[in-house]
Amino acid sequence: MGAHWYFDFVSPFSYLHWQKVRPLVEAGRVEAVPIVFGAVLHALGILGPAEIPKKREFIYRQALWQARRDGVTLRFPPAHPFNPLPALRLCVAAGATPPAIGTVFEAIWAEGLAGDAPVVLDGLAARLGLADAAAAIADPVVKDRLRANTDAALAAGVFGVPTLAVEGELFWGNDSHDLMLAVLEDPGLLRQGELAGVAAIPVGVERRR
Predict the structure, then answer these.
(1) pLDDT band (50, 70, 90) for residue 197
(2) What is the pTM of this model?
């Protein structure tokens, strides 16, 4: 499959974009790939957006505004950011299918549940058809799969979530969906005209006073 959608449940923008990209995943045009966003940030040596106070305020307002614009229910969990690892592993253990992904997203971002609370994770496991949440979360095969997903994202150049990777190109964020669709329909679009030349724009040096 040529297109991969990288996401993490910690990201409200991943949740918002899931509403748009899910039909493409269900149709087999895009593969949804859960990754550990924190590991990507660590590998790149950068802070997460919620770790920068003013940026945190901005992205929360932006997420709420986008949800209102798109007619999507968005309720923040009790604390954010939270540790998404257990929820990611439960999703992987359940096969990372569209129903599994949707179930986890809905619990955290539509119902506003704590994505790392044991009682919530037990409930999620039951919804996903998993007999034992703790066992699924601790399963070495599940851990390895999630780690491999994250390594693949890093190898593709992913720096944020959600990101759609198509034909070696990256499309980041909920608001880039229209461009994603255009490229999915016409993979040669980025090799035409001015769009083809952006990689050749020289990197300038910022002057500081």
Answers:
(1) low
(2) 0.93
